[in-house]
Design a protein that fits this description.
The complex is a heterodimer of chains A (397) and B (137).
Chain A: H1 5-13, E1 19-21, H2 24-32, H3 34-40, E2 43-51, E3 56-60, E4 72-75, E5 78-80, E6 88-92, H4 114-122, E7 127-132, E8 143-148, E9 155-163, E10 170-172, E11 179-181, E12 184-186, E13 192-195, H5 203-206, E14 218-221, E15 224-231, E16 254-259, E17 268-273, E18 277-289, H6 293-299, E19 307-312, H7 316-319, E20 326-329, H8 330-334, E21 337-340, E22 343-349, H9 353-368
Parallel strand pairs in A: 1-2, 10-19, 13-22
Antiparallel strand pairs in A: 2-18, 3-6, 3-9, 4-5, 4-7, 7-8, 9-16, 10-13, 11-12, 14-15, 14-18, 15-16, 17-18, 19-20, 21-22
Helix pairs in contact in A: 2-3
Chain B: E1 2-11, H1 20-28, E2 31-40, E3 44-54, H2 55-67, E4 71-74, E5 79-81, E6 101-105, E7 110-113, H3 123-127, E8 133-135
Antiparallel strand pairs in B: 1-3, 1-4, 2-3, 5-8, 6-7
Helix pairs in contact in B: 1-2
Classes of the chains: A alpha+beta (397), B alpha+beta (137).
The complex binds iron/sulfur cluster (2 copies).
One iron/sulfur cluster is lined by residues 79, 96-98, 100-101, 118-124, 133 of chain B.
């Protein structure tokens, strides 16, 4: 028996929707069977929390008197992009603070950057805006230095070109020296391994063929009512998949947007990755409507049925050799130890399953209370799309 | 009774030339294990130590230090783990050599800090992407 978005939303509005998290649904369906469970369950909540570098926000400061057309600006010394309208700027998560020594004294600490500014904005802190202009007839002011917080802004719209990678690499270092990566510090001789996925709770692993998550889907973006506004950058759905249709590598991605004024500080956190840079960790929850048995079956995916590929970040990743050292299920990875080439390797995560679980529960209670409605995507994500590399041709002659 | 206590000692700048540790060992028959130290003559400093010895002698040692204006903070370590800021990502757990930072609940992947196991190696300071750990020195 199939359900429609409208039917599910009516149940949500009347406070009668049956909602389970992507963790709870696994045992539930095993006990009840898919057919019976598909009739009962209306929504499955999925979630993830982890660093998502392709994140940032548009901010509008409002006009001063006299007016300025900002051409260069810094928030708490972190440069923002000003190549848009007069008092609009874009602040990116990986932007370093002005004068950060980066990796000049290797490994750099990267204590503060775009991700941290975004965290502080959401937390309501007062920050400094310093802005310059060349001055025009209609915008004569040439400099602004002022303190502001998020309430002083007209808009603070998080706009992230790539979030929620469907699956991700597992990183290891086979070289003889320690390396510093966006998946954390990797000790030499494959001493440790890191991964970054909420596995069985992760949104796109519960909807591997993008049957419900598409452009226009309502998402819980760090507590705000967000939206999927496009396929994410590097969305690459034409990849190897298991019998359960779950990809064994990156695959799909989502471009998300949400109002930062509605966000919960706990789920918007600046990230410092020594030797690599700064980023932003975000919490995202996505509800999956149980429209039919097939969609429900996809949400019962378990960590043991999701595979991650271990890649050598000392050589194969930077050189793009595409070599995979080993494959592990997320159940093995989450156990904290795996075997690689006959050697025991300690495993840890960059993403937080703990926070993902909390988000899945929060979203579940919002839907149960009738506070979060589902939306039908206006367009599905491309299913057979590949990704091209960059061919370097040299500059203009 | 013999016990083992952790302590930080803060030295005022007038006291940096006194051989306190040597005296604790010689006069009070204590075993001292130094984790971290920074004592600059004429500027003051600190010592993070573990003291093993007879309870009464430890107390006598502390009295001796106090009489010499050495400030004693005992019972905890110099590493601060801000629980509310921890995201429970687990990244630090494989880098912490003693299991002080560990997964306390494998079902929900909750991370906790067991102060008694911390040896103040400070590996977690750079391994935590969220600056949850800091050192009091
Ligand atoms: S200082 Fe060292 S021993 Fe203490 S919690 Fe951090 S990593 Fe573990
Ligand atoms: S690395 Fe930091 S945030 Fe992650 S579990 Fe350890 S202390 Fe918590």
């Amino acid at each position: 028996m199939a359900k429609t978005y409208n039917e599910i939303n009516e149940k949500i509005a009347s406070g009668k929707a049956v909602v389970l998290t992507a963790e709870e649904v696994i045992d539930y369906v095993e006990r009840k069977g898919v057919a019976a469970a598909a009739k009962e369950v209306d929504v499955v909540t999925t979630a993830t929390f982890g660093p998502m570098c392709s994140s940032g926000c548009f901010l509008n400061f409002g006009h001063s008197a006299p007016k300025i057309r900002i051409s260069e600006a810094w928030i708490s010394d972190v440069p923002v992009y000003c190549g848009i309208a007069a008092v609009d700027v874009y602040l990116g998560a990986t932007q370093l603070r002005h004068n950060d020594p980066a990796n000049m004294y290797f490994p750099g600490e990267f204590r503060y950057g775009g991700g941290h500014v975004i965290e502080e904005l959401v937390a309501g802190k007062k920050l400094q805006l310093f802005a310059l202009s060349y001055g025009t007839d209609d915008y004569p002011r040439r400099e602004v230095r002022t303190m502001f917080d998020i309430n002083d802004l007209n808009q603070a719209i998080m706009t992230n070109p790539r979030n929620c990678y469907q699956n991700y690499n597992v990183a290891v270092n086979s070289s003889g020296k320690r390396i510093y990566t966006y998946l954390g510090i990797l000790e030499p001789n494959m001493k440790n391994m890191t991964y970054c996925s909420a596995g069985q709770l992760s949104p796109l692993l519960n909807d591997p063929l993008y049957k419900t998550i598409g452009v226009g889907t309502s998402v819980w973006l760090a507590g705000s009512r967000g939206l999927v506004y496009a396929e994410g950058t590097q969305h690459c759905s034409a990849v190897e998949r298991g019998a359960n249709d779950v990809p064994v590598e990156g695959a799909g991605t989502l471009a998300l947007t949400g109002n930062m004024k509605e966000m919960i500080p706990e789920f918007v956190r600046g990230v410092s990755l020594p030797g690599y840079g700064v980023s932003l960790a975000l919490g995202v929850g996505i509800p999956i409507p149980v429209l039919n048995e097939e969609i429900l079956r996809y949400t019962t995916v378990r960590d043991r049925d999701i595979i991650g590929c271990a890649i050598d970040y000392s050589h194969d990743y930077p050189e793009k050799t595409c070599k995979v050292l080993a494959r592990y299920s997320y159940e093995e990875l989450r156990s904290g130890q795996v075997e690689l080439h006959g050697k025991k390797v300690a495993v840890s995560a960059m993403s937080s399953y703990h926070k993902a679980l909390k988000i899945a529960e929060l979203l579940k209670s919002e839907i149960q209370r009738g506070d979060f409605m589902l939306s039908e995507p206006s367009r599905l994500l491309p299913l057979n799309q590949s990704m091209t590399g960059l061919t370097i041709t040299g500059g203009a002659k | 009774m013999t016990s083992c206590k952790k302590a930080y000692l803060h030295f005022p700048k007038e006291m940096t030339d006194k051989p306190f540790i040597g005296n604790l060992i010689k006069e009070f028959d204590l075993t001292i294990n130094i984790f971290r130290a920074k004592v600059t003559p004429g500027e003051g400093g600190y010592l993070s130590i573990e003291i093993v010895g007879d309870d009464e002698q430890i107390q006598n040692g502390f009295t001796y230090l106090k009489q010499n204006q050495v400030e004693i903070h005992s019972g905890d370590v110099g590493l601060i783990w801000r629980k509310e800021e921890c995201t429970h990502c687990t990244n630090c757990t494989v880098h912490c050599p003693t299991g002080a930072l560990h997964i306390a609940d494998w079902d929900t992947r909750r991370v906790e800090f067991d102060e008694s196991k911390c040896i103040e190696c400070l590996a977690c300071l750079k391994n935590c992407p969220f600056h949850v750990c800091s050192s009091i020195f």
